[in-house]
Amino acid sequence: MNDTSSVFEPQSTAGIRSFRDLRRFAQEITGFRPNYLPAQGDAFQVQRRSLFKAEEAVDVGAIDLPRGQGRVDETAADEFIIVFDGAVSLTQDSGPVEMLAGNSAVIPRGASFSWRTDGPTTLIYLRHKSKPADATAVVRIDESATLQPSGTPPVELLIGATPACRNYTDYRSADGELTCGTWDSTPYRRKAMLFGHCELMHLLEGAVTLEDEAGNRRTFMKGDILVVEQGARCSWDSFQQVKKVYATFRPAP
Prior knowledge:
single chain; mainly beta; Jelly Rolls; six-stranded antiparallel β-sheet; 5% helix; globular; disordered N terminus
C-alpha cells in the first residue's frame, strides 16, 4: 500500500485515475506565484496552472493572482473557484462579492467582472465548458444553507449501516453537467465505486479515507481540498460526520 500523505497525486500505476490533493498542489505552486500583472491578457485568465484536463470538458488547477486588479469581459466557461490563500473581490454591476481564504463561488459562462486583490492570492478552480448560462451573476456557495435529505450510496456497496445524507445545490450549469453546493453525511463505509463523474471537494467538517484500485490510501481532513478524477475507482471510509462543499462534473448520457 502506498502512502500518499506527502504528494499531491498518488504513486500508482501509470494511467490509473485516482484522487488528487489540491491543497498540496496549490502549496507547491505558491512559491512560483508571479508578483506582477502580465504584459498581455488579464491575470485571472492567463496566469493559470492546470493540474489536469479531461478531454477539454473539465479543467482543474490554480489561478495565481498578484497584488492588483483587472477585468474579465466575458468568461468562456462555468468556473467553480475556492480561495486557497489571500483574498479577492469580484465586482459586477450588482456590487462586489468579497471572498476570503476558504470561500467558494461559481462564475457562470458569459459573466463579466472586475477583480481586485490586496496581496498575492491563489484560487483553485474547476472549469467546465457548458452552454451559455441564463444568468451571469457570480454565485457564492452558501455553507450555512439548510440541507435537505438526498440520495445515499448503493446498498450493495455499503459496509454496515446506510448513512443519512443531505444536500443543497447552489448552482447547476445550463447543460446540467456541473453542480455545485454543500453536502453532509453521517459516518459510513463503502466499497470501491467507479466514479462516472469528476468531483472537487472542500472538507468543512470531519475526515474521510479514500483508497484507489492501486492501493493508494489517503485520509483527508477538515480544510483539505481534493479532486477525484472521472473514471477512478475509490472506496470511502468515514468514522465521523462529514460536510463538504462540492463541484461535480457529470457528463450527460
